[in-house]
Amino acid sequence: MHFFEKVLQPPAYGWKDQNDNLIKPTAAQILGEFFSRLNIFRDKKNWLPLLSWVKILCLIPFFFVFLIYYIEWWTVLAAFVYSMIIMGTHGTIWHHRYCTHGAYTFRNKFWRFFTQNLTINVIPEEIYVISHHVHHSLSDKPGDPYNAQAGFLYCFLADVNHQPIAKDLSEAEFKRVQQLMEHTGVKSNTYAQYQKWGSYVNPKGAILSWLLNWAFWYAAFYLIGGHALACTLFGAAGFWGIGVRTFNYEGHGKGEDRKKEGTDYNLKDNSINQLWPGFVAGEWHNNHHLYPKSARSGFKPHQIDLAWYYIKMMHTFGAVKQYKCFKKQFYAKHYSPVVCEKQANIAEKLT
């Protein structure tokens, strides 16, 4: 069995049946697995997915305080920009292009730490990174942790049900996990600690970094705009934290092949390019699946890529040492041949 087929903790209902077909669990099975995996009294190794949702639960009150006490035109605008653009773009910059795919490298640890903490801490790197490698290896196949063919709920609760690493990895397999994570700067457990906690990261380090990040940003927002701005943006972060869990269901055609000729060039899976995620977060998903290690996925002129603009700016300033960009390869191998073929067909019809 390939490493990416066993690195994640399989759900109780399994990834595939005896005929290698995707198992599509019922809503009751998915919810049962979800609450079972949040139960740290049954197994303390469930601590990381629980922490991920504790953050969301802690952010929800800020959202309601914003709605009840601070809703004005400027706070609504601030909430929109922070949740839809800043949080989304940062997720693409940090979790997606750097932590998972290593599409660029920082000049030093300071700039890595700076970029990591540019926004309110919501998603644990470990849960995102390892599972996203699996997603690319098994895209839209059984074992893909957010396989859209199994339905919305399967994807929405994937961070608990499908994305945590397996709890029975060998020492060699855990070392492979460490190799996939070491460039992120997130400190690793020893193998003995992994056997105790079931995770790459240690609870003390994860909780401390979370609390320090939140304390810094609440203080910063308060100094700029008082409790109104702080509650607004913390509430917006919670809104994003819930909304982002819907992306892979939408980004893979809701489980159907919805690729469009001339828009989506990667034909190996159901990933599609969507205008809204592309414009607000640089997430041109089909392009990304075509060239996952590219620091840029907005290749065409209309494909705004805010994440790429940040990376390019940091490179200009010297904070990013190097990056990978596959725009030329995209045009040479995919876009230009299609355009030339269309022009030839039109010319043939005219003659």
UniProtKB/TrEMBL annotation:
<dbReference type="GO" id="GO:0016717">
    <property type="term" value="F:oxidoreductase activity, acting on paired donors, with oxidation of a pair of donors resulting in the reduction of molecular oxygen to two molecules of water"/>
</dbReference>
<protein>
    <submittedName>
        <fullName>Stearoyl-CoA desaturase (Delta-9 desaturase)</fullName>
    </submittedName>
</protein>
<keyword id="KW-0275">Fatty acid biosynthesis</keyword>
<dbReference type="Pfam" id="PF00487">
    <property type="entry name" value="FA_desaturase"/>
</dbReference>
<comment type="similarity">
    <text>Belongs to the fatty acid desaturase type 2 family.</text>
</comment>
<dbReference type="InterPro" id="IPR015876">
    <property type="entry name" value="Acyl-CoA_DS"/>
</dbReference>
<keyword id="KW-1133">Transmembrane helix</keyword>
<keyword id="KW-0408">Iron</keyword>
<keyword id="KW-0444">Lipid biosynthesis</keyword>
<keyword id="KW-0276">Fatty acid metabolism</keyword>
<feature type="domain" description="Fatty acid desaturase">
    <location>
        <begin position="73"/>
        <end position="312"/>
    </location>
</feature>
<feature type="transmembrane region" description="Helical">
    <location>
        <begin position="214"/>
        <end position="240"/>
    </location>
</feature>
<dbReference type="GO" id="GO:0016020">
    <property type="term" value="C:membrane"/>
</dbReference>
<keyword id="KW-0443">Lipid metabolism</keyword>
<dbReference type="GO" id="GO:0006633">
    <property type="term" value="P:fatty acid biosynthetic process"/>
</dbReference>
<keyword id="KW-0812">Transmembrane</keyword>
<feature type="transmembrane region" description="Helical">
    <location>
        <begin position="47"/>
        <end position="70"/>
    </location>
</feature>
<dbReference type="InterPro" id="IPR005804">
    <property type="entry name" value="FA_desaturase_dom"/>
</dbReference>
<feature type="transmembrane region" description="Helical">
    <location>
        <begin position="76"/>
        <end position="94"/>
    </location>
</feature>
<keyword id="KW-0560">Oxidoreductase</keyword>
<keyword id="KW-0472">Membrane</keyword>
